[in-house]
Amino acid sequence: MTNKSIEATQTKNHQNMILTPKKSDIIYIRRAHYHETDQMGIVHHSNFIKWFEEARIHLMKAIGTSYKIMEEEGVISPVVSMFCEYKTMVGFDDEVFIHIEIIDYNSIAFKVKYRVTNDDESISYAVGESKHCFLSKEMRIIALKKSHPHINEIFMAEFTKNS
């Protein structure tokens, strides 16, 4: 049994979790809720986008910052684009593992990749990407390298680790 499997087994009773089994692999674990399903008991496709946002928020915490901290410091990070390719259905009460990584970063924008699987990764439910930019509270594009070097260092370290 791998470390990831052991940790996943230990967390089966938790509804929403984040695991960091190895430095380059951040995983957000989520159980499908009844209210997210349609009449057939299948999770509605729109919920994957919401799950991506939840996973992205946990990614930020795992790397050492958060949207809350960034917003308190005057940095806003809106979605510029979103992509999701659905592979197979998720049913009510299924547990999904959302693998998250920063795949592009340049101080002005970043891109996140998502893979939604079951615990042993034998089922791929969906894959996706989202792109985000950094804005000031005045809605002007900013470069973290100049405006918030400490946040830039956090993003750059995570991106470099994954490239």
UniProtKB/TrEMBL annotation:
It comes from the Bacteria. Gene3D superfamilies: Hotdog Thioesterase. GO terms for molecular function: fatty acyl-CoA hydrolase activity. SUPFAM superfamilies: Thioesterase/thiol ester dehydrase-isomerase. It holds the Pfam family 4HBT_2. Keywords: Hydrolase. The keyword Disulfide bond does not apply. The keyword Hydrolase applies. Belongs to the 4-hydroxybenzoyl-CoA thioesterase family. This is Acyl-CoA thioesterase.
